[in-house]
Design the sequence.
């Protein structure tokens, strides 16, 4: 038994230390990044059992991913692919305010995820299945794996969570919209920004958009608005949350942190307003340091943003 199961591609991440054109970078920090593994780490840090499933290359980067996730307390089911490498993500900072991310994932081990890599019994025994719309965009086999996983979860009454996480480099808005409209009826929790929600419906106003999306199936719809906060529509009730004021260092991974915070509090049985506050706090923590997941909070960290006042902890 595990509280949450998720799966997808996690890549080795090279982040340039120098601001400016990437061609002038000489030093890089090596880490890892992946939407689903970010959520896995975030939920684990907030006190729940998590299993991440994926394919990695039989290489040093694959070993790095396995070791890091295990070190974060995530049960890691990583298939070592001897025929394809671990994908790469390169992050540069063109200016102090502009981050540029490039992916080298075509034909990668992670893109070769297939239904056989997923254990239906593992999914049926979980409380939550979390997926992103990145995975079905990677390949036909990864798309099939996503459908199989959602079907297994639905058959067992497992909560299905979907973060749209649209990546224009992987598929067109039309392709993504068709897939989302097909799967959304089987989703219980939907995370999206306004532009992502509009892949499914033409509605632009956030509350009306949440209502339109909820009418297609999800019981809980979360609309993320970054520095403007977020709203949740659950069981017909709309709740708004103001953002936390923090100094943004690196915005990549904030949406994954938001999802992790919400799902962790759902697993903990928190009240709806508390779930939304925790989601916003986790998202705020995520942007305060370099890296996609490194600054994700633990339970004891959450109060640091809420108390205000002094910025020195002794």
Sequence:
């Amino acid at each position: 038994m595990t509280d949450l199961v998720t799966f997808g591609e996690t890549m080795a991440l090279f982040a340039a230390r120098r601001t400016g054109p990437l061609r002038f970078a000489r030093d890089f920090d090596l880490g890892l990044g992946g939407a689903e593994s970010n959520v896995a780490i975030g939920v684990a840090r907030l006190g729940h059992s998590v299993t991440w499933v994926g394919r990695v290359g039989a290489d040093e980067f694959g070993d790095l991913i396995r070791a890091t996730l295990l070190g974060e307390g995530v049960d890691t089911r990583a298939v070592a692919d001897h025929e394809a490498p671990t994908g790469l993500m390169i992050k540069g900072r063109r200016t102090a305010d502009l981050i540029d991310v490039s992916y080298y994932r075509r034909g990668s081990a992670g893109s070769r995820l297939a239904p056989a890599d997923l254990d239906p019994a593992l999914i049926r025994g979980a409380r939550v299945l979390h997926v992103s719309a990145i995975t079905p965009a990677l390949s036909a086999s990864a798309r099939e794996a996503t459908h199989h996983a959602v079907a297994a979860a639905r058959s067992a009454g497992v909560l299905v969570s979907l973060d749209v996480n649209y990546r224009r480099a992987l598929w067109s808005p039309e392709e993504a919209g068709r897939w989302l409209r097909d799967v959304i009826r089987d989703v219980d929790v939907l995370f999206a920004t306004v532009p992502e929600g509009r892949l499914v419906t033409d509605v632009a106003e956030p509350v009306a958009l949440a209502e339109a999306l909820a009418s297609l199936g999800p019981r809980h719809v979360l609309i993320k608005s970054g520095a403007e906060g977020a709203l949740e529509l659950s069981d017909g009730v709309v709740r708004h949350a103001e953002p936390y004021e923090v100094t943004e260092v690196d915005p990549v991974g904030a949406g994954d942190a938001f999802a992790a915070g919400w799902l962790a509090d759902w697993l903990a049985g928190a009240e709806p307003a508390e779930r939304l506050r925790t989601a916003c706090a986790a998202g705020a923590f995520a942007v305060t340091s370099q890296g996609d997941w490194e600054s994700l909070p633990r339970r004891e960290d959450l109060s640091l943003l809420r108390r205000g006042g002094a910025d020195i902890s002794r």
